[in-house]
Amino acid sequence: MHFHITPMKIYSDFSLKNHNTFGLDVKCSRFIAIEDETEVPEAIHQLSDQPFYVLGGGSNVLFTKDFEGTIVHMQTSGIAVVEENDLSVKVVAAAGESWENFVNYCVTHGFYGVENLIGIPGLVGSCPVQNIGAYGAEVKDVIDSVEGFYIADGQPFVMSNADCHFGYRNSIFKNELKNRCLITNVVFRLSKEEKYNLSYRALSEKLQDEPLSLKKVADTVSAIRKSKLPDVHELGSAGSFFKNPVVSQTTLDTLLQRFPDLVHYPANGGVKLAAGQLIDLCQWKGHRIGQVGTYPLQALVIVNYGGATGKDVVDFYSRIQADVYQKFGVKIEPEVNIL
Questions:
Q1: Is 335 a catalytic residue?
Q2: Of 147, 169, 171, 189, which is the active-site residue?
Q3: pLDDT tens string 153-163
Q4: What's the mean pLDDT when you consider all of the chain?
Q5: Which domains does the chain show, CATH number per domain?
């Protein structure tokens, strides 16, 4: 018989209000909090017979109703250097570690590569799932490998960057392995050489005459974020609600005849449009219906002004989607996971 020194924390009929950044008042049938990686096999054993969802910081999910099943929440922590030379360093971070903590750790230690991603809410374990990105950077460019367990048989895995099939806001964890594994650690390879990604225009403009440092870049990114995005502690939201749509060059050429000012940039296999601009051109920026609205400073963000339900948010985003499609013939898809 084996005994855990600290029994795994399992709660019934648990409120998720503080576990989703929209601040929606929903419950789950059962909530498992994993505080130590050694608890993972037992947690997986508990999942055999009912629906479950692995929840990170809850900053990328929209609950439309109570979740009839088990929510697994990683609450592990720890960041450590596992290998380094003069040019680069490998750092492992626990899935339950806050992304903000991890970025601050890297900035403080002079490790380059994640400073443009500062301020993204959520946990380290969620970053590969979504291949989070912002201000010209994507996390796939610094992930070395992802560690975890398969839920079907409890076997551990280590997946290399190539195995993760990263794409724009996409990975194997959203497709073939969706709800089939539990990520426990992410290993990053970061640079110790001074180099910055200033490909994002607003960022390069703000920094053009400044002496650069990691802290300077991180602070500037934070300032730009704050000028566009609400603080989820003050106003419920899930950050950018929609993905930027990718269209063909032909579609773009046709659209530019009618809308010459459309923002566009090259993307894998096509051209990416700015969803925020499309929504804005449909007059939805700052629009509010009841307790749901688009954020006045950034049309991509849908906010809960207090007391909105998941259904209210779905009705709202569906109307935006329909308007954008009607005006541009382009379908914008949610970036947020809808449950």
A1: yes
A2: 169
A3: 889 999 999 99
A4: 90
A5: 9-74 (3.30.43.10), 79-228 (3.30.465.10), 236-338 (3.90.78.10)
